[in-house]
Amino acid sequence: MRSPPNPEIFAPAAVAAADPFACAVGVGEGGERLDRFLSQTAAARGLALSRTRLKALIEAGQVTVDGAEARDPAARVAEGERIALVVPPPEDATVAGEDLPLTIVYEDGDLLVVDKPAGLVVHPAPGHAAGTLVNALIRHCGDSLSGVGGVRRPGIVHRLDKDTSGLLVVAKNDAAHHGLAALFADHGRAGSLRREYRALVWGAPERASGTIVAAIGRHPFSREKMAVVAEERGRAAVTHWRLEERLGPASLVACRLETGRTHQIRVHLAHIGCPLLGDSVYGAGFKTKASRLSGQASAALAALGRQALHAAVLAFDHPITGQPLAFESPLPEDLTILVNALRREQAAGGK
Do 162 and 110 share a structural domain? Predict the structure, then answer.
């Protein structure tokens, strides 16, 4: 039985003040998980810190054990260790509008479609509290977005990774939000939604077209990554692809999503041996191919600084009027430069 928590811990005022508060692991308390130890000790002092919240604080580097940062919630505490915790002050729940450039390709009273540049985060999150697409949308739309889809994600019904460019639709009222959310939940299986991406990949698929059916879940060893996993450990994922152009050591591929899993295209294409150019997470094993590129192609890839993925086609029936809408975004300049460099290298007989 666990002994009562050490009383030398957690002044309640420290929580509000965001100052470190410390405790010592007492006799009989060793061997407990770090997150569980902190949760039980905080609860004994009447502090409103859930185990989930404490786990997040540990993983964010807000806990030290004997002065050393501890980021593993499952680590076992040892008798006599000194544990310090910092609880940051709560963030403002509201999101401020910011005067950021927006490329709007369509807008009416219910929705708008934007062409998102690479490097722009879609909605505020830890580490990206400002400078997001949502900040720009709030400035552009004003109070009309308030409450549509939540404070942090007003109007957002789908997202693109920070370093993926291309088309994204945003709802401007609740009716449009519900209609679009239903379309994206269906992923075009029965509804009108069609999403197509252009990707530059290493190598080339063996056939002209195909379908990847492979469940995706959290990577077993790296919590920042996703991976193809057994069906019982992940969520069903389907990606249709076709080869558009061979470019020497690389290829231009079009992908159509039937599901919308995190990093789906990146994970699926890496799974068939064709990871995206510039993808440091899922294509790290292809650095030797990059080293064999010629000067122009090598420079274009280095300048890219992101995964070579672009949301090129977005089509759907308007959620209010039923009008068919279809939009296409050409490859942005950074990807166009890379494609042209690869074409020149191929024409010159490069490897």
Answer: yes
CATH number at residue 35: 3.10.290.10
Residues paired with residue 22 on neighbouring β-strands, in sequence order: 84
**Mean pLDDT of the chain, nearest integer:** 85
CB burial readout 278-294, b (16+ within 10 A) else e:
bbebbbeebeebbeebe
Which of 137, 160, 183 is where one domain is finished? 183
Domain total in the chain: 3
Residue 346: how many other CB atoms lie within 10 Å: 17
Which CATH number is 118's domain given? 3.30.2350.10
The predicted pLDDT at position 6 comes to 46
Say what the pTM is.
0.73
Looking at the structure, tell me whether residues 347 and 321 fall in a common domain: yes
User: Given this model, what pLDDT does residue 58 score?
Assistant: 87
Q: What is the pLDDT of residues 114-157, one digit of tens each?
A: 999 999 999 887 667 788 999 999 889 876 675 566 666 788 88
Catalytic residues: 161
